[in-house]
Give the backbone structure.
Amino acid sequence: MARERRDYYESVYQIAAILNSARDSRDLLHSIVESVAKATRAKACSLMLLTVDRDVLLHTVAYGLSDWYLRKGPVTVSKIISDVLEGRPVSVLDATTDERVLYRKQAREEGIASMLSVPMKLRGEVIGVLRVYTAQPYRFSRDDIQFVETIGNLGAVALENLRAYDILQKDYDEFRRDMLQWRAALGDEGMMGELVRPAEEQAIEIPPGG
């Protein structure tokens, strides 16, 4: 899984471009997990968003994990999650024996060895968790952690921007419908008359010496 720092720089640039071009929330989230898994050469990656009460993380999207594993149960606020929600990344060398991991048996059956969990932050507030899984035991380097944190934060900002775009688009569509209804009520002829009148006034000729 190890990557050289310059490779991560290139990956950040490429992933930022992908996130910037996304126009659908689901596509955006899928792009994040797939891009992180491929850039880190990991087995899998998942993205979990917090519920409103901040008690449970929901597996929102994943890349490289089986449906069986994703349905193993809710991800409640355990020791690992608690630390991540406080803004600290947490790495686990052996997910099958580490007591901080809730579903150790399921991790073994899924073929998961090590895990890295990092917070997704938006304006200083943690809104979710980005988690990387490896098939072989791996000690995550500082570059690995910084890279995943960077993509997690970029994803949080992109998600908010996309939601804002959706709201603006909805407002524009409503405004456009209102304008069409207004034109229909007035009639196109009346509106054209109002638009033509200033031009008619400008066309008046002033007699010489007037």
Notes: Residues 165-169, 188-206 have pLDDT under 50 and may be disordered. The chain has two domains: 5-162, 168-202. The CA atoms of residues 57 and 149 lie 18 Å apart. DSSP finds seven helices and six strands in the chain.
